[in-house]
Every structure is written in C-alpha cells, then in structure tokens.
Amino acid sequence: MLNSGVLSLAKPMNVMRFSTSLKKEPGRLSTEILAGTSSFLATAYIIVVNPSILSQAGMPFPAVLTATIMVCFFSSLAMGLYARSPILVAPGMGLNAFFTFTAVLALKIPWPVALGVVFWSGIIFLLLSVFNIRTYIVKAIPKTLRYAIAAGIGLFITLIGLVNAKFIISNPGTIIGIGELTAPVLTFVTGLAITAVLLVRKVKGAILAGIVLTSLMAWPIGRWWAGTVPLISIKGIVALPDFSLLFKLDLVHSLRWSMVPVIFAFVFTDMFDSLSTFVGLSEAAGLLDENGEPINIKRSLVVDAFATTIAGLLGSSPGTAYIESAVGIDQGGRTGVTAITGAILFLPFLFLSPLISAVPAIATAPALVLVGVFMMKPVIKINWPAMEEAIPAFIAMVLIPFTYSITQGIIWGFLSWTVLKVAAGKTSKISMALWIIDIFAILALII
Question: What is the chain's percent helix, strand, coil content, to nearest 5?
Fold first, then answer.
C-alpha cells in the first residue's frame, strides 16, 4: 500500500448525505462507478508489482499473478458488500517485501511455510477484529513509531527498486555503489522520470502507465544495444489463470514455535497499517458516525483480516486496505458500489499472465522507487525536537532498509522507545500493551 497520506480529497460530506440511497440521489450510481474505476487505476500497479516481488521468493510468476488478482477481487468485493465501504483491498506493499526478502530469503523459510504464516496471522487478525482487541493494541503503539516504520518500509521498497534496476549495486569498497549507466539502467531512469512527471501532472493511473511505457521502451534494447539481450520475451498474450499456488500453504510447519516471531511481525505490521488507512480516509471523506468514529470500522477490519487469511490460501502475501482508494473518494465514491466496481475491473487480468509476465524488473522499479516517496510523508509528523521520540523513530526508520529487515527495524524501534522513555522519567507514557509487545520483541531476538 502506498502510505501516501490523504490525497487531495473533496470536502467531507455530511453523514446524512452519503447515507442517502443510490436511488434517491440522481447520478449517484454513475458517480460511484466512475470513482471505482479511478481507484482501480490508482491501485492496478499491484497486478504487476506484487508478482514481480513474490516471484523472487521462488514462486511462479503466473501463479502469483492469479493469486494477487483473486485477493484483490474477493477482498474488495467483500469490502463493498459486507462493510459497504468505498475502500479497495489488495496485497500490501511492504508486506510483500517482508514476505520475500525477510521471511523467505533472509530467514530461509520455505515459501509454503511462509504462506501458512500469512494464513495464521489472518486468523489472529480476524479474532482481534471481531473482539475489538485490534483497535486497543494499535492505540498502544506510539504514533511516532507508526510514522517512522511506514517511512522505513518506504525506504526499503525504494532500495529494492534501485537494486532491481541495477542502479544501486554491491561494492566491496563502499558496501554499495552506483551501477554503470548501461542501456537498461538508462531505461529505468527514463521510466522513473516519465512516471514522476505523470504523477506531478496528476494523471489517473500514473504508476500503471509508467510501468507500461517503461516496458515498451525496454522492448528494443536487445536489438539496438550491442552486448545486451532482450529484456522482454513475450510468449503470448492470453492464457488461462494459473491456480497452482491454491492451497499450497504449509499449515503444520508454520505453527512451529520458531514461526511465532514471524507471525507476530505480520500481525503487527498489517494491524496498524490498515487501521490508520481506514481512519485517515474516513476522516478526510467525512465517512463518520454521530460520534465521529469511522462508519462500519469493525466490519472493515473484519474484511481486512479476511483478505490476509485468503491470501495465504490463494498464494499471496497479506492483503490490506489501500490508501490509493482516496483517488476514488476524491471522485465522489462514498458507498460499497465503488469497491465493487474496482473489484470487478481486476478480473480480466486473470487471463493476461503471458503479457504481464513479460514486464521486466526495470519497468516495475520506477514504481517501487516512487512508492517510497509516498510512504515518506509521515516523517513530517514525527516530533523531532523530543529526543526520546526522535531517536527511536530514527532507529526504526533506518534499520529497516540498512538491515534489509522490517522486523529488525520494528523490534529495535520499540525497545529503544521504552528504554528512552524510562530514562526521561516518562514511564507512565508506556502502556501495559506496549510492555507486552516489548517482551515479544525480546523473545523474537532470542529466538
């Protein structure tokens, strides 16, 4: 998810106004459909980006593509029908990076076991959401750390994009360094510039358009540049969906004690990420009840938990609410029809796996870099003058990309926050829930 904060939204609507039925408000249905289309265009980049990340964990690209679309469809449909919310749901950015680069590649967890971990974390989400415990836990997490972790994940995703494009490479002398300006790297730079311009111009579906245009530029490289090979090899356009990842999760080994810290990391990351998205969008759009609370928040959180649970069953990283839904809300989307429209628009891509599989890493790399830009916005909310808050925030933010591990950034952020609050004589600011989280963090380091 692009934690881009709240986009330029229309003025909040009165609660009574958006509760009016579609039949009583002329043009409402067409407005909702247009809004759903706009949200889909802003979210559709995940169709390409998620498989490109998860395939690095050894999972087949076409199968991950199918799983990604199915998660988007079923979860967004449930959000529209059950929660009656205009928010789309899809595999979360940051969560897919944690799945691939931390769980599978760094911790050496086989991807079927990692899918099992996703499933069990979804079950925990569901229980926490049904009994409203989820909201209590998230409120216990300091907002400063929430902002820092979001920014750290953004830096992590940006680093992945730069490495995939070979713009950043390993360097024995300086650890990392800039790569040579080869034709593929220059194609990435050009694609990044084009995508950035489209975003500045506020073009709908700018990121998806950037992926397509960069892919088209990459097509002739192997023919026009001596010493390189074609970056794109299309073996067709249409094919039947690949369901080979369906129910391939390992439910038994994913419940081993050694998997508990990983389950906790998924639970924690998705937990505050989705809740902050729901609250932010609801506040901006005026989707609030008479007490000022987000409408249908409990149902929305249940759907979010459902998205993570089915993601493990279908073969994807966890699903979560997408902040890009703000684009559709800006277009007037206020009901579940917006989410239902977006869900339906994902389905045709089930049959385009050969075409989408041809998208090279340098085409998705600009999207990953710009995702980092969006996710850095919460940094301005950090209370930098207060050192007991700024230092833990900084530690969490930089350790995520520097250790190539979201988990390490979260753990050390929590522990340093607690230690410095105690040192500052502000022990009362540490909730009981946070003390419990700290215990789990220490256990994660020991295990």
Answer: 65, 5, 30
